[in-house]
């Protein structure tokens, strides 16, 4: 008689599978609970450190010599010889060029000959005056003796006055000719062109043998510049020019010397702007010594105006600071879970509510207030969602920057101001702490009070491994779609992530 008992192995397999599923679920729950309990697994933790910070206004500029002279020709003629070339070092008074002096020398000779002729005629006029005086005196004596007529006396008087006038006219002609001679001699001297200042020849625009015409406009032959002091001509946008102050410190770097800084102080901001393609730019000028002659004319400078700076001060990342406190919060501990008071606000703003024992993330709250509801990112989430999670810290940092560094007028606020940060204590718990901040830029913020060196603060969320790999994959796809070759650089993602 055949047996009717069912085999036991299906039941055993089912029991083993159930136990395995239960164990796996318990392990995952335990791991998730540990991650939720330990904020170091979820957040980027940084220490408060001491360092230097600068609030900068950046612009581009061009280097030009502070003192330079365009040397031109004051007389017309053929440029006979140029004694210098570009790069020549000259001293004030050195001979630079010569113009053919043939015509000028002839003018001088003619003026001198005319002067000699007039001076000879002057002697004749002086003799005629002496004769006229003698005749006038003789007629006066004769009229006293009643030996001549009154008419003869009057004729002698007229001759005397005429001789005096002719002598005065001759002297005036001599003075006029002397002036013409001086002008001719000056023009002859202008045929030899000398350096007006000490410096270097930075350009030569004329050529030897060229005919120069100084009657219509002064032709430029070359430029001499004093390169010991350079002027940086910087174009600053109208949005930043209001932050500039005369005598404020400024430094710049050049394309060939990125590691070296040249320092100076703002000398002048020209009130009249230049408009290029509807962009209004103001010229800001400052000088810098150039004793070693490393700076050259027309170099491009990356200019940094120092609006504020501090050395050896406490610094935290900009993403760790909230510009406005979001209400009182309770510390995690026996009194209740951390972030309990902020859970309704987080839920109302669309941010993820913190679990028990887990702090509410300031970045999530700021993102929720600006970007709308968010959901936790899973490892198997679509690529667009993972990339959005990677982009979230950048969006939060931009929101922080808007709150911290832009006042109600659109300009950066000045002076100390209040803010909050999330701090990790020695027991690994989190608390929100009010601090006083000072100088800030888009990377770091100065802490004036409320924190000590070595304190640990939350700077943002840790980047999920799945989201990072998804971002890298989509970055390559985006580069291929945009026709870019692979290589280093910033991720090329369209706004809002890949589509």
Topology diagram in text:
Blueprint: H1 9-37, E1 43-47, E2 49-72, E3 77-82, E4 89-90, E5 95-99, H2 102-144, H3 150-190, E6 192-194, E7 199-204, E8 211-212, E9 220-237, E10 249-254, E11 257-269, E12 274-276, E13 279-289, E14 300-317, E15 321-322, H4 343-349, H5 362-371, H6 383-405, E16 417-424, E17 430-440, E18 444-449, E19 456-461, H7 465-482
Antiparallel strand pairs: 1-19, 2-9, 2-14, 3-5, 3-8, 4-7, 5-6, 7-9, 9-13, 10-11, 10-14, 11-13, 12-13, 14-18, 15-16, 16-17, 16-19, 17-18
Helix pairs in contact: 2-3, 5-6, 6-7
Describe the protein's architecture and organization.
- The relative contact order is 0.14.
- The protein starts with 8 loop residues before the first helix and ends in a 17-residue tail after the last helix.
- It has 4 domains: 39-55 and 315-482, no CATH class; 57-65 and 226-309, Elongation Factor Tu (Ef-tu), domain 3 (Beta Barrel); 74-100 and 191-218, RNA polymerase II/Efflux pump adaptor protein, barrel-sandwich hybrid domain (OB fold (Dihydrolipoamide Acetyltransferase, E2P)); 102-190.
- By secondary structure, it is of the alpha+beta class.
- The protein is built from 7 helices and 19 strands.
Short overview:
With 499 residues, the chain is α+β, with helices and mostly antiparallel strands. The chain has 7 helices and 19 strands.
Descriptive terms for the model:
OB fold (Dihydrolipoamide Acetyltransferase, E2P), 4 domains, six-stranded antiparallel barrel, 499 residues, 19 strands, Elongation Factor Tu (Ef-tu), domain 3, alpha+beta, four-stranded antiparallel beta sheet
